[in-house]
Amino acid sequence: MSNITQLLEQAGEPDANSQLFELVYSELRQLAAACMRTERPDHTLQPTALVNEAYLRLVGGEGVSWQGRAHFFGAAGRVMRRILVDHARARNSAKRGGIREKLELLDNMATSEHGPETLLAVDAALEGLGRIDPRCVRVVELLFFAGMSQEEAAEVMGVSVKTLKRDWQFARVWMERQLRPGKDPA
Fold first, then answer.
1. How many CB atoms within 10 Å of residue 43?
2. What is the rounded end-to-end Cα distance, in angstroms, of the chain?
3. What is the DSSP string of 42-65?
4. Is the pLDDT of residue 20 over 90?
């Protein structure tokens, strides 16, 4: 893992970027697969494309000062969420007024029955939650979208597992209330 940290410090250099990609690809692929488990089965975006797009956004932009492996993978989960939301928005650009489904954010939710309308509703609700408690949004991103364990997410966030569990409980209840059928997200 120290190789990953060293390469993250050299991010932006072509040789370092290609070596880094080789080292992190399998973990990014697992992260993408976890993100895609909540998508519909006929989704046009595949995990490999999600990994490639996320990696390009992570290392291709302005020089980010990575604070280590956990920071990188936490950011990767957030970037993958943004890509999926952007993809859903593009797919729904012609559709308006879709019916909102109730979505329960359970620890073990891994269903692909929710369509792009649900992902957009979740994103809107997360934006509302972010105005109340940005840390809770980060918890949802890491547990729900990135598929991390509570212990991994707590490490990435630099909080105790107990604090993370409290934030997760608050976020789940808040999100479930916002996603009730007929209610517009905050």
1. 18
2. 41
3. T-SS-HHHHHHHHHHHHHHSS---
4. no
